[in-house]
Amino acid sequence: MMKIKMERQKNIALIAHDNKKDDLINWVKENKEILSKHFLCGTGTTSKRISESTELPVKAFKSGPLGGDQQIGARIVEGKIDMVIFFWDPLEAQPHDPDIKALLRIAVLYDIPIATNKSSADYILSSPLMDEEYTREIVDYSDLRISK
């Protein structure tokens, strides 16, 4: 097992599909005081709209369909993102569905807390662990041998 420590100040990725952007923005507004204590990032339009609506600094990556989901996945692998709040639309097919699936897989593989709706985001944010250091344990796959 590998241990990865999350600091008290978390690195939180904020992502939303088009039909869920307003929901995420409203959620961020409701939780602005808590979120202001952490580092925020997100995919293109979502991060820009959150920043404009809340005046919180949100580091912007590319738009999801242009590689933003993959950029966030890469930051998870590098240990630079601690959790993901992803308001996704389960009723709308997305042109970048494979990227979304890859992001979700990486989040699970690296034991990242991930919220996919308001309820799960509320539970994560209200956890006492939000204000503490936390050590994630992930399986060390470096010795994994794939047989042919």
From TrEMBL:
The keyword Lyase is assigned to this record: yes
Catalytic activity: dihydroxyacetone phosphate = methylglyoxal + phosphate
EC number assigned by the record: 4.2.3.3
UniProt cross-references to InterPro entries, sorted A to Z: Methylgl_synth (IPR004363), Methylglyoxal_synth_AS (IPR018148), MGS-like_dom (IPR011607), MGS-like_dom_sf (IPR036914)
Ranges for domain MGS-like: 4-148
SMART domains on file: MGS (SM00851)
Main EC class the enzyme belongs to: lyase
UniProt xrefs under PROSITE patterns: METHYLGLYOXAL_SYNTH, MGS
Binding site for substrate: 17, 21, 43-46, 63-64, 96
Active site: 69 (proton donor/acceptor)
GO biological process, alphabetically ordered: methylglyoxal biosynthetic process
A single GO molecular function term of this UniProt record: methylglyoxal synthase activity
Keywords: Lyase
One Gene Ontology cellular component: cytosol
Role of this protein: Catalyzes the formation of methylglyoxal from dihydroxyacetone phosphate.
Family annotation (PANTHER family): METHYLGLYOXAL SYNTHASE
Family stated for the protein in its record: Belongs to the methylglyoxal synthase family.
Protein name stated in the entry: Methylglyoxal synthase
Organism ancestry: Bacteria, Bacillati, Bacillota, Tissierellia, Tissierellales
Name of the gene: mgsA
